[in-house]
Design brief:
nucleus; 27 helices; mainly alpha; two-stranded antiparallel ribbon; coiled coil; transcription regulation; TF_DNA-bd_sf; DNA-binding; 2% strand; activator; rod-shaped
Length: 588
DNA sequence: ATCGTCTGTCATTAG
DNA sequence: ATCTAATGACAGACG
């Protein structure tokens, strides 16, 4: 069906690129991508199909090949001349259409089966398996995320596409003109060159041959150039700006004392002040330990930063896919993971200025083309991993990261609303794991903000104002930049706040424990002192009675306790005082 | 289905 | 008056 319409569409390279993006993101556009692209993209489609129906296709190809060979043999054996291609060609053309989706083949051959054609048939049937293996990393959306680090394959898609509208084209141009996207431009140029090379070969020569040619190989090489040094520098700079996590604010200064209350001699009870010394030692030591632990905990986040370094642009430029495990999903941490992502080349590749917004801020994007919403959100996930590596650095310092896992769960709803959303549910899962572009990053892309979110958030006020003054931004863009900066700052502040809160909670818990211990110790001491006091009173009473009983008056009679009492002065002198007199003295 | 946790965001306040 | 950090509160995602 769709193939019939192809000639009418005449899609431009940009359109094809968009379609390609959609195709990769959605895994399936509902209609074969070949419907839109019958030149360079055919290979990808073919590969795609091949994966889905690999074995079945292989068998079919073998059959087709046999048919083609038989046809060729007939030509040579029976006529010894070139047989009119009408019959063989149609057959071969149909075969190609079914297998390779290559329309050029049919167009090119209209006369007779030449040696080249036979070669094409052979190449078409046999080589298919190999391209599937070599090409997938770049062409197949189903390729593991790690391969996404090399975005170049997507670039070619942006160049020519009749489907795109003028505004969209302009948006593309603007996006590509962005400093951040310079690498993208380079890639595009490379891809254009490649296309120029490929197309001629496909049209003039044979599309099938192009598949076997090293055409796919160039992509990897191009990828290595995706990130110019200046771009990498930009990244580094952004990382440098990342805030280092604040260590625990808590400081428990408690005397270090390990002594415990020990029963004192009876006599010592008379001089309690001598033993009154606070022993919060154990508590203090614990407190210090706790503080150190807290410090360690607080300093732990930086570990992510370290990891981030491993994802430095260097790996990027090398084009080596990083293992997923390398990128912590969590955006947590003080680092602004998201920002690094923004700066990543991969993202810039995808930047088309169109996408959907899941949150209430979607209205901000009114200015942006709405048609591409789903495309935008889906495209970025592929790039995310590469970004995530660097982004995790931020979660990194406040280079969060990592961040980065499902940072924007809200994206899904938006995608659902997107008209171009792919019908496949498996994409949803992929989105969850890969779609980690922050909403602000998406918004920035949509409004074509010429700054990275990282810069917007982390640049000092002066630098930020200077940067803003260098660009003419619309009201919407200015508002978005301000919001991005505000949210980014607040995000970090919230992370710090929570971190402090946790530290405070831990510190208070330790303090509570120490206070409980001290209370218990004091209660125990009180009990002991009370016991000692009772014992002292008892002994004093005994001594009193003993001394009083030894006293005798002039007649040798003991004094009556009712009439006399013993009293002592400060210097230790003891007086026998009559009860009556005593009361009188007191009165006096 | 529910609950607890984590995270981002907004609104408010203090410095 | 303005900006920024801090923080409470809320909502969504996730296990």
């Amino acid at each position: 069906m769709m193939e019939i319409e192809l000639p009418k569409m005449h899609p431009s390279q940009q359109d094809m690129d968009l379609i390609d993006i959609l195709w990769r993101q959605d895994v399936d556009l509902g209609a074969g991508r070949e419907v839109f692209d019958f030149s360079y993209r055919q290979k990808e489609v073919e590969l795609r199909r091949q994966r889905e129906k690999e074995e079945e296709k292989q068998q079919q190809r073998l059959r087709e090949q046999e048919k083609a060979l038989l046809a060729q043999l007939q030509l040579d054996e029976e006529t010894g001349e070139f047989v009119p291609r009408s019959a063989p060609l149609t057959q071969a053309g149909s075969t190609n259409a079914e297998i390779a989706q290559n329309g050029a083949f049919a167009e090119q051959d209209g006369d007779a089966m030449s040696f080249d054609e036979c070669m094409q048939l052979l190449a078409e049937t046999f080589p298919l398996d190999e391209p599937a293996e070599s090409a997938p990393p770049c062409l197949d959306a189903s390729v593991p995320p790690s391969t996404d680090l090399m975005m170049p394959p997507d670039i070619p898609a942006f160049t020519q596409n009749p489907l795109m509208q003028g505004s969209l084209d302009q948006a593309w141009m603007e996006l590509l003109s962005l400093p951040e996207l310079q690498c993208l431009n380079m890639q595009m140029q490379e891809s254009l060159d490649m296309n120029g090379f490929m197309k001629p070969s496909a049209e003039a020569q044979d599309p099938n041959y192009s598949q076997y040619l090293p055409g796919m190989d160039p992509l990897p090489s191009v990828q290595t150039e995706v990130c110019p040094p200046e771009y990498i520098n930009t990244y580094d700079g952004s990382f440098n700006t990342m805030v280092s996590p604040n260590l625990s604010q808590m400081s428990l200064n408690v005397p270090d004392v390990g002594a415990e209350f020990r029963p004192e001699e009876f006599n010592e009870l008379f001089y309690p002040e001598m033993e009154v010394k606070e022993d919060s030692g154990p508590v203090a030591s614990d407190g210090e330990n706790m503080v150190s632990q807290l410090a360690e905990i607080s300093s732990d986040p930086p570990v992510n930063h370290m990891d981030l370094h491993s994802f430095s642009p260097g790996s990027f430029s090398s084009g080596k896919p990083e293992p997923m495990s390398e990128f912590p999903d969590s955006d947590s941490g003080l680092s602004l993971d998201a920002s690094p992502h923004m700066s990543s080349p991969g993202k810039s590749l995808n930047g088309d200025g169109s996408f959907g917004f899941s949150d209430s801020d979607s209205e901000e994007m009114d200015g942006s083309p709405g048609g591409m919403e789903s495309d935008y959100t889906e495209i970025f996930p592929l790039v995310y991993l590469s970004d995530g590596a660097q982004g995790s650095l931020s979660e990194k310092p406040p280079g969060e990261a990592q961040e980065m896992k499902a940072k924007n769960p809200k994206i899904e709803p938006a995608e659902a609303s997107g008209h171009s959303k792919p019908p496949f549910t498996k994409d949803k899962q992929k989105k969850r794991s890969e779609a980690r572009l922050s909403r602000d990053e998406q918004r920035a892309k949509a409004l074509q903000i010429p700054f990275t979110v990282d810069k917007i958030i982390n640049l000092p006020v002066d630098d930020f104002n200077e940067m803003m003054s260098k660009h003419q931004l619309s009201e919407a863009q200015l508002a978005l930049v301000r919001d991005i900066r505000r949210r980014g700052k607040n995000k970090v502040a919230a992370q710090n706040c929570r971190k402090r809160k946790l530290e405070n909670i831990v510190g208070l818990e330790y303090e509570l424990d120490s206070l409980k211990e001290e209370k218990e110790r004091l209660m125990k001491e009180k009990s002991q002192r009370s016991t000692s006091l009772r014992e002292m009173k008892k002994q004093l009473s005994t001594l009193y009675q003993e001394v009083f009983g030894m006293l005798r008056d002039e007649q040798g009679k003991p004094f009556s306790p009712n009439e006399y009492s013993l009293q002592h002065t400060a210097d230790g002198t003891v007086f026998l005082v009559p009860r009556l007199k005593k009361t009188l003295v007191k009165n006096n």
